[in-house]
Design a protein that fits this description.
The chain has about 110 residues and is mostly helical. About 55% of the residues lie in helices and about 0% in strands. It has four helices and no strands.
Length: about 110
């Protein structure tokens, strides 16, 4: 029975990701559908959950994540907000306490 827990955890992570995307109005219907599909998967019996191909479901969620991310980046750039910096910085072992880090993106290169 305990082998089910990692699968449920992955499904719940997908639920959380789709909730974050709810502000993307143009994808609303598709997001709602994938959200409901994911909820349905989490309510199955343990034997049924073990038969779910998580990778296939995750790929459907990822399509929406990528599309939403691309639209968000486009909208941010369209408004004049740059989401990437040409300046590369190394913040390792740096004290960031008290700095305003809103809208900063810390993506590893």
């Amino acid at each position: 029975m305990f082998v089910v827990f990692p699968l449920i955890q992955q499904l719940h992570e997908m639920l959380q990701q789709t909730l974050i995307l709810k502000e993307t109005r143009s994808l609303q219907d598709r997001l709602q559908k994938i959200y409901e599909e994911t909820i349905e998967l989490t309510t199955k019996r343990p034997e049924e959950i073990l038969k779910i191909v998580i990778k296939a479901h995750r790929s459907k969620v990822n399509v929406l994540l990528i599309e939403s991310s691309e639209r968000d980046r486009y909208n941010r750039n369209k408004k004049g907000k740059k989401n990437v910096s040409n300046k590369k910085s190394d913040y390792s072992a740096t004290n960031l306490k008290g700095l305003n880090l809103q809208e900063k993106i810390f993506v590893g290169n």
